[in-house]
Amino acid sequence: MILIIQNGYSCDYEMRLFASMFFREDEEVTVTQNFTYSDKNINVYTHIIFNGKSYFEDYNFKFDTDGKTEKLIKKIFIASCTKSFSHAALKIRKINFSWGVMCGIRPAKNARELFDEGFSKAEVREIFKYVYEVSEEKTELALTVANNEKLLLDNIGNNSISLYIGIPFCPTRCVYCSFVSTDIRTSGKYMPEFIEKLLVEIEKTAELVKLSGVYVENIYIGGGTPTTVSAEDFERIFKKLYGCLDLSKLIEFTVEAGRPDTITEEKLKVLKKYGVNRISINPQSMNDKTLKKIGRSHSVSMIYDTYKMARNVGFDVINMDLIAGLPDETPEDFNYSLNEVIKLKPENITVHSLCIKRAANFRHTENELTKSEDMNKMLSFTQMRMKEEGYDPYYMYRQKNSSGNLENVGYAKTGTMSTYNVNIMEEKQTIVALGGGGSSKVIIGDRIERVFNFKDPLEYIKRFDEILTKKDEILSLMKEES
Ligand code: SF4
After folding, report:
1. 207: left (phi over 0), alpha (psi -120 to 50) or beta
2. CB-ligand 1 contact for 399 (6 Å cutoff)
3. Looking at the predicted structure, is the pLDDT value of residue 370 above 70?
4. Among 95, 221, 360, 434, which residue has the fewest nearby CB atoms (within 10 Å)?
């Protein structure tokens, strides 16, 4: 058990986050911290008791709160607490510290908020370095992403929304999966009814769009693996979308085709016919041995074939996902995958750090994980190669359970950055979710209201009346905004 006692200032959430990076829940750890602020000086004294031994850190930081916003003061106080704790804990265990004591899943948002506070680029660099102890490499990444995100966020149309359609079926379940998805070999029997209900939900959403006076700017069909849907059913979904919604101002229409073993020429042609202008073909690794190990039922050669097929059908924005830190993969294996993907010249490449959530089967086989130093090498290599090849990082997030506390980054060639991806990170545009597993986010000024759809296809079908009621709830929230 990790016991944290804070006197003078409390930031339990952030302290627990950092404590979980150093210690397991089943370890006996006591952390006592005393915080004082006087004469423009922050002092945080940390005492950790672990395995019967004591570890201390006495951290001081000159900081004048005069004229600073409450938000900034809070950031600095929290960073001081987590830094004092981390410096004491680093005497016990070494962890990857390239993001220093920066909390939160959106480091670029942190940079943007500092810009909004009036700090210059040079000052933000200094804050990242001295307050958060973020490495130079990660600082540059965060600053570049913040800049690119801003360009996209500035272009969001007034009164515009995005639609997310979740298809929670996959051909097999990947061993590391932490998403909403069911194996089609067992849940496939629910697909026909799921599609019928989804068509009704689209109609209901169209009413909502009309009554709230907004228009649809982006559609993202994700999952699961959306291309588990047949070409005929895709056609029905698209016909319904175009039949009941005004999509004349639609800018981006993405379908996460995902796994090559579900993509056929027939499906791709239907997608193209209905205006899908961005698809993902996700290898995760370009090593057959790894694909087998992680439970993907496709080979590397299928990735090449599907990619070629998509180009022939006419898709000109293709994203490819890779994962750094897959089991038994060395930096050389990962670098090989990245270089193979680069050779294909997709417009977007997204590199994830392996994330182990409670639900995923890997949690109990920690020895399978690539060490975090190796992960860091993979991500550094990515950053370098992307720069060489003219890809710009434009969205980034960190996940709580990612190996080595590292980041996921979307890279894109000029003019092909996905607005939807930035929207979902930065929460500046309302997203209405349909289907399984999505959550609607209604932006009301500075407030965000979330409404969750059911994750499991069977629950979605059985409790469909509630799905329709939730759409009424979303409508009331959206009317609040206008
Ligand atoms: S394809 Fe994605 S959603 Fe489906 S099982 Fe694999 S990781 Fe999960």
Report:
1. alpha
2. no
3. no
4. 95
pLDDT at position 358 over 50 = no
Say how far apart CA 338 and CA 322 lie, in whole Å: 7
What DSSP assignment string belongs to 150-199?
HHHHTTPPTTEEEEEEEE-EESS--TT--SS-EEHHHHGGGHHHHHHHHH
CA-CA distance, 84 to 74, in Å (whole number)?
15
177 contacts 168 by C-beta, under 8 angstroms: no
188 burial level (CB within 10 Å; 0-12, 13-18, 19+): middle
Task: Measure the N-to-C terminal CA separation of the chain; round to a whole number of Å.
Answer: 48
Please identify, by atom number, the ligand 1 atom nearest to the C-alpha of residue 178. 8
Handedness of CA 114, 115, 117, 123 (dihedral sign): positive
CA dihedral 254, 255, 257, 258 (to 10 degrees): 70
For ligand 1, atom 8, the nearest C-alpha belongs to 177
Tell which atom from ligand 1 comes closest to the C-alpha of 295.
6
Domains of the chain in sequence order:
1-95 (3.30.160.100), 153-477 (3.20.20.70)
> Strand pairing partners for 448?
443
Q: Is the CB of 326 under 6 A from ligand 1?
A: no
Q: Give the pLDDT of residue 379.
A: 94
Give me 374's structure tokens: 């190796």
Candidates 289, 277, 273, 176; CA nearest to 231 is 273
Q: Which ligand 1 atom lies nearest to the CA of residue 176?
A: 7
**Model confidence band, residue 355 (pLDDT cutoffs 50, 70, 90):** confident
Helix pair 136-153, 107-116: axis angle to 10 deg: 70
pLDDT tens by residue, 424-445 = 888 889 999 999 988 999 998 8
Pairwise CA distance, residues 307 & 309, whole Å: 5
Q: Encode pLDDT of 53-96 as tens digits.
A: 999 999 999 999 988 889 889 999 999 999 999 999 999 987 77
For 231-251, the pLDDT digits (tens) are 999 999 999 999 999 999 999
Q: Which residue owns the Cα nearest ligand 1 atom 3?
A: 224
**Cβ(180) – ligand 1 distance below 6 Å:** no
Using a 6 Å cutoff on CB, does residue 258 contact ligand 1?
yes
Task: Look at residue 401 in the predicted model and tell me its pLDDT.
Answer: 59
Tokens of 305: 């074939």
- Residues paired with residue 56 on neighbouring β-strands, in sequence order: 47
How far is ligand 1, taken at its centre, from the CA of residue 119, in Å?
41
Binding site membership of 134 for ligand 1 (Cβ less than 6 Å): no
> Is 280 exposed, middle or buried, given 0-12, 13-18 or 19+ CB atoms closer than 10 A?
buried
Cα–Cα distance, 204 to 465 (Å, whole number): 11
What integer is the mean pLDDT of 470-476? 93
